[in-house]
Each structure stands twice: as structure tokens, then as C-alpha cells.
Design a protein that fits this description.
The protein is α/β, with parallel strands linked by helices. It has two domains: 92 residues, Leucine Dehydrogenase, chain A, domain 1 (Rossmann fold, 3-Layer(aba) Sandwich); 124 residues, Rossmann fold. It has ten helices and eleven strands. It has a six-stranded parallel sheet with strand order 1-11-8-7-5-6. The protein has a three-stranded parallel sheet with strand order 3-2-4, with helices on both faces. Strands 9-10 form a two-stranded antiparallel ribbon. The protein binds NADP nicotinamide-adenine-dinucleotide phosphate. NADP nicotinamide-adenine-dinucleotide phosphate binds next to helix 10.
């Protein structure tokens, strides 16, 4: 068997085209484009790259996005004050704060300061609580990207066995809750799981978000399974690979996301999609 490749770039282009139409409609109705504020206090090179990537997609779908650089030594009160101002700003419908933060700033303070209405990356306790209760909520964008791939590829979830490897707050845990809502039977594995392969081999849908290059090999995959690789690992010789050994697993799986070109390209698109949803709300 050779797996169907689930092409995140193609899906991303499709969603961007849908968003362009939706934003056009929004502007006709409301007279202004949805607004996105990206706050960057980290000053680190990687977050500048992420911010530019989000700005490019925003421009493509005609969301009005702006990047605010704050000095790395910004006091906690000042950052909180700026976030509270953005909560009240009528031209801003979505707020993202780039991570990682400098050591003196707490992620919890940031998450508690962004209004749930504008929390388009689903980082607040209120968003997490709503997700837990099965109420409408913004989702962490990577988890939302995985769900979007499953939906667009028409992967059946109800009654099926889904195994997630990784239990982070931004990927594994929110995915487990979303998949339960879709009536899947969900198993979450982590670094203390014993006999991981015995569990992954039971998965009809296998989602891997660990951060260990090529750790999932063909013997760990049930023939015909849908495999979603969230991992991004930089190779010493350059380039990136996922957590799934693509070459061997594609011979066993029924469907598989590549890395690069799978979940990654959808993550920022989902941020913009949630920003447009926030604007309508
Ligand atoms: P994380 O916070 O470091 O969590 C990694 C998870 O993997 C933890 O739950 C950890 O278990 C588990 N784990 C570690 N070693 C394991 C092992 N040997 N067997 C089973 N589980 C193991 O990572 P993350 O933020 O979720 O990210 C995971 C990967 O996805 C990374 O490669 C990251 O770069 C990538 N990522 C991609 C995107 C995207 O846009 N595509 C976005 C975010 C992240 P414990 O909880 O027990 O420590």
C-alpha cells in the first residue's frame, strides 16, 4: 500500500481562498476589515520569522494585521496594560502574543489578560475551559490545523480508535478533547507510556506530536491507518523532518501528512480563520 498524501499546502490554499471571499463579505457588511494584533516581546529571531509568515497570510486574505514590537525588558504591568487596551480596541478582533516570552514575563499572565473573545490562538484558561466543557471556543491553532486536515480529508472519526502521541497543552490535550467531541475513542500517550508501539499499532487514526525525528516507524503503524505528523525537527545537515519516518510509513499507512508540507502550512492559516470568526462574533 502507498499512502494518500494529505497535502497541507493545497488545503491551506483552499482555506485562504475561502477566507478571501469571507473577508470581502465581512467588509461589505461591517465597513472595515477584521483586525489582528501580533505582539512580540521576545525579540528572538524565530518569532520574527513566525510573525512575518502570519503577516503574509493576513495580507493575502485582506485581514488588517499589525505587528507591535515591545522591548524585551517590558515590565509585566506594561504588557498587561497593552493587552487590556487591545481588548477594548474596536479595530482589533484577534490578539496573538508571540512565544517564548522573556523569562520575567509569565505565559499565564498573558493568557489571563487576553479577552476570550479575541483569544484566536486558544491560550486562555477560559478558552481551555470552554473546550473542556464542549462549548464553542477558539482552539490552539496547531490542534485546529490537525482537525481541519481530518475534516477536509473526510476521515471518519466517530467510533474509531484514535491514538495521540504527545500531551502538550497546545497539541495533544486539546486534540484529545476535540476528538472526543467527534465521538472517537481516544488514547493519549506520552513519555511515560509503556510499550508505545502496541498502542500506536491499534490506531485507525494516529496523530504524533512529540518532537523526535522519525520516531514512528512502519512497524508501529496499523496498515491503512491515517497518520498525522505534527512534529517539526531540524536536521543537523539542514532541512526539517517530522516525528514520522515518512519513507517507511507511507508504504503501510492509508493516508499520511508530509513534513514539510503537512500540518505546518495550515497552522497560521487557522489563526487567520479564527480571527475572521472572532470578527463575526
Ligand atoms: P512538547 O510540549 O515538547 O510535548 C511533547 C510531548 O511528547 C510531551 O507530551 C512528551 O511527554 C511527549 N514525549 C516525549 N518523548 C516521548 C516518547 N519517547 N514517547 C512518547 N511521548 C513522548 O511539544 P509540542 O509543543 O506539543 O510539539 C510537538 C512537536 O510538534 C514538536 O516537534 C514541535 O516542533 C511540533 N509543532 C509543530 C507545529 C506546527 O505548526 N506544525 C506547532 C507546534 C508544535 P511528557 O508530557 O511525558 O513529557
Amino acid at each position: 500500500m502507498t499512502a494518500v498524501i494529505l497535502d497541507g499546502r493545497a488545503m491551506g490554499a483552499e482555506i485562504r481562498s475561502e477566507l478571501r471571499d469571507e473577508v470581502r463579505h465581512y467588509v461589505q457588511q461591517r465597513g472595515q476589515a477584521p483586525g489582528l494584533a501580533i505582539v512580540d516581546v521576545s525579540g528572538d529571531g524565530a518569532s520574527a520569522v513566525y510573525s512575518r509568515a502570519i503577516l503574509r497570510i493576513a495580507e493575502d486574505v485582506a485581514v488588517s494585521a499589525r505587528l507591535e514590537h515591545l522591548p524585551a525588558l517590558t515590565p509585566p504591568d506594561e504588557l498587561r496594560c497593552r493587552l487590556l487596551q487591545l481588548n477594548e480596541d474596536e479595530a482589533t478582533q484577534g490578539i496573538i502574543v508571540q512565544m517564548p516570552l522573556p523569562a520575567h514575563l509569565s505565559q499565564k499572565m498573558v493568557a489571563d489578560s487576553i479577552s476570550a473573545r479575541k483569544d484566536i490562538d486558544g491560550i486562555s484558561t477560559s478558552s481551555a475551559g470552554n473546550l473542556f466543557l464542549g462549548l464553542p471556543s477558539f482552539l490552539p491553532s496547531t490542534a485546529a490545523a490537525v482537525m481541519e486536515i481530518l475534516e477536509r480529508s473526510k476521515t471518519v472519526l466517530a467510533g474509531r480508535r484514535v491514538v495521540i502521541v504527545g500531551r502538550s497543552n497546545v497539541v495533544g490535550k486539546p486534540l484529545a478533547l476535540m476528538l472526543l467531541q467527534k465521538n472517537a475513542t481516544v488514547t493519549v500517550c506520552h513519555s511515560h507510556t509503556t510499550n508505545l508501539a502496541a498502542l500506536t499499532r491499534q490506531a485507525e487514526v494516529l496523530i504524533v506530536a512529540v518532537g523526535r525525528a522519525s520516531m514512528i516507524t512502519a512497524e508501529m503503524v496499523r496498515p491503512g491507518a491515517t497518520v498525522i505528523d505534527v512534529g517539526i525537527n531540524t536536521r543537523p545537515q539542514g532541512g526539517i523532518v517530522g516525528d514520522v519516518d515518512f519513507a517507511s510509513v507511507r508504504e503501510v499507512a492509508g493516508a499520511l501528512t508530509p513534513t514539510p508540507g503537512g500540518v505546518g502550512p495550515l497552522t497560521n492559516v487557522m489563526l487567520l480563520k479564527q480571527c475572521v470568526q472572532a470578527a463575526w462574533q
